[in-house]
Amino acid sequence: MHYKLPRYLIISLGILSILLLFPQCAWFQGEPPEIEIIKPTPVGGYEVLGTRIHYPRTVREQGIEGTVSVKAFISQTGIVTETRLAQKLEPELDRIALNAIQRTRFTPAMRAGQPEAVWISIPIIFALKDWQFKSTPFKNFEMSVRPNASYQIYAVEIQGNLKPGIKQALRYEYLLPVNADQAWVKTGSGKPIKSGVVRDENGEWLIFKTKARSLTMGFNYRPLSGQDDHKFKYKFVMNQPLPAWRLVVIYGDQQVRFSQDPDRISEQSDGSVHFEYDLEQLEAFEARYLEIELIR
User: How many CB atoms sit inside 10 A of residue 120's CB?
Assistant: First the structure.
């Protein structure tokens, strides 16, 4: 035989249960609910991050596409201090995604008006149907290398002139050698351009933005050891595609010969000798390995 509680007793028990739960509710105790965090975003927007993502020719030719998911720890100052691969795709594309995020500044996460360090997840999508060839903004481009007489310092200068019709400011990034120092950027007229340096697993990148139609960039290159005294070795990578360009090694009155024959040798009116190499055009972020050994 089942005993049924009177209706008034059921209602009373329900009210009593609610009253017992009230003191455990944060809003009943007067505590504010947890304040929602505002997530970090790349400085300049995700479009800026997108300009650091490239889709290498060799990977495209294999038909590889998909998503790389990266977890990044953004500090209170907006610096990426740690990255992890949450979803892998292909080793080279994994590295490209990691490196692009590592050298991106973020606006920090905010909670109640205060910056906060957080982990975020960023998906990077590589899709063949969305890939478009980016044409070079340069009309001409040249790198010159001037070794001193003792081969202890190689002064490197890069010159570029833009095509007509480009009006907006362009953002430039190029990878510095590990043994570079005193990097600089100027307009064609010699006015200094403000620049900064960011790091990823490849090394240090010199970054700047300018509307200048002609510019020069440079650094001093110092061989790493006695064995490399006569060698200039540089993995040149830039975020802008290049036209067919030249490498020029400039000498004074030293008697030298090269382990790699130049395409042209010309004596200038100032008495210097130019050893010129013709180099093929490059896609954005496509690497060119330069190595020239000078034999006295």
Answer: 16
pLDDT mean over 174-187: 94
Q: Is 54 exposed, middle or buried (0-12, 13-18, 19+ CB in 10 A)?
A: buried
Which range is most confident: 9-13, 214-218, 254-258?
214-218
Expressed as residue numbers, the domain containing 73 is 41-130
pTM of the model: 0.77
- Cα–Cα dist 110/11, whole Å: 46
- Residue after which a domain boundary falls, among 93, 108, 130: 130
Number of domains into which the chain is organized: 2
Q: What is the token pair recorded at 122?
A: 């960023």
Going from the C-alpha of 205 to that of each of 12, 273, 289, the distances in angstroms are: 72, 31, 16
The predicted pLDDT at position 223 comes to: 83
Count, residues in the chain = 296
Q: What is the CA radius of gyration of the chain?
A: 29
Q: How much is the pLDDT for 6?
A: 53
Cβ atoms of 68 and 94 within 8 Å: the answer is: yes
- 180 touches 219 (CB < 8 A): yes
User: Is 21 inside any structural domain?
Assistant: no
Helix (H, G, I), strand (E, B) or coil at 213: coil
